[in-house]
Amino acid sequence: MINRRSLLRNSLASGAGLSLLAGMNASTANAADAEPIPIGAALPMSGTAAADGIEFKNGLDLAIEEINAVGGILGRPLELHIEDTAEMGADVVSQAMQRLIDRYGTPVIVNGYNYGTNMVEMDVAADSDVIFIHYNTLISHNNKFKEDPDRYYGSFQGDPPEYYYGPGLLSYLNGLIDSGQWEPANRKIALVASSVEYSIVIANAVREFADQYGWEISLYETVQFPTNQWGPTLAKIRQDEPAVIAVTHFLPQDLAAFMTQFIPQPTNSLVYMQYGPSLPAFKEIGGESVKGVVYSTVVGCLPDDFSEGFRTAYREKFGPTAAYLTGSQTYDGLWKWALSAAIAGGAGEPYDGDQARAVSASMNRLIYRGVNGICRFDPEGQSAYTFPAQTPDASLGMPHQFLQHQDLTQDPVLVAPPAYAKGSFILPPWMS
């Protein structure tokens, strides 16, 4: 079986696509002596989202190490520069990105997520003719791109927008029922969102499609962001017991607090949460109370043979509890850009619109199989297609993954979609 690690080792000899990085004009041996290509990243290295910021940096570090090992981009090594976005927000993030461009001349900026920006990052990238790749997971990216595709040609969302979490969750729930894995007491969903765009859009999408899938929204509750006091919300949930509690808030420490406060007096409800359970802090804080929680992500490292080398290398480099599910995002984003830049003849530099457009065109043409699955950009919004909501072909879209915490000594189990699943859903212990 050829894994990611062996592909990297053998790419130059085999003539695989990665050999483009070693270059037509420079060898791997002299790449270290060439002028580095500055890579920018505006990441929350401190503040409430620091756990993710660290993993986003880890993913970039590993990708750069591997890319440089095969000769960089056309003989030029990559060099990472980071600006901390701390508590994030439009002003903080836009200023961080501008510093990366002005101080280091970065032709590309690869971010994880930064919330509260209203996608102002796209304007910074457009004004400077740099490629911008991010994982904000927001439909507002698509909407802004559609307003002026020519201006925002260089802005890419490396994963599908959060909007697709809504119909995706409802489809998954119906699949559990249809397959006989779960028999709900009713068809009620209690929706709990936090006061940030990402969370609200997901909750609204669930509410929008609920009736179409045969569900009723029995509660729609919005909480502060961040929050760890769930008592009032849980009291409302217990007044009208639902079959599903869907929490679209995403900070792992807050979601763990929800479970520790839910378990002493649980309802007979499947608990679905958003993204945060993928981070080690969720399990570390929540302990046994999180066993049985289902969560999903439209982007995350798949537990398949293809990603085995990445998963091993990531934890060897960053520790046994490092969250490769998060680091895989920026890892894949940088790899896809590097291949696209090599195909286009070089990375370019800020304010070189012609070369930036050439790289952008390569990124749109390249269907990239990374450790998160397939990244193929939707030309209507320049974000990754999602499977199965946007395309029924698993080879043309990034899978919307559903995972469950089952054995807390192991990683969560991928239970859907079937094309990628490594196990089956189990009834949570508070429901047995």
TrEMBL record:
PROSITE patterns associated with the record: TAT
Domain of life: Bacteria
Segments forming domain Leucine-binding protein: 36-380
Keyword tags: Amino-acid transport, Signal, Transport
GO biological process: amino acid transport
Signal peptide span: 1-31
InterPro entries the UniProt entry points to: BCAA_transport, Leu-bd, Leu_Ile_Val-bd, Peripla_BP_I, TAT_signal
Family matches, as Pfam families: Peripla_BP_6
Protein family per UniProt: Belongs to the leucine-binding protein family.
PANTHER family: LEUCINE-SPECIFIC-BINDING PROTEIN, PERIPLASMIC BINDING PROTEIN OF ABC TRANSPORTER FOR NATURAL AMINO ACIDS
Protein name: ABC transporter substrate-binding protein
Organism: Pseudooceanicola spongiae
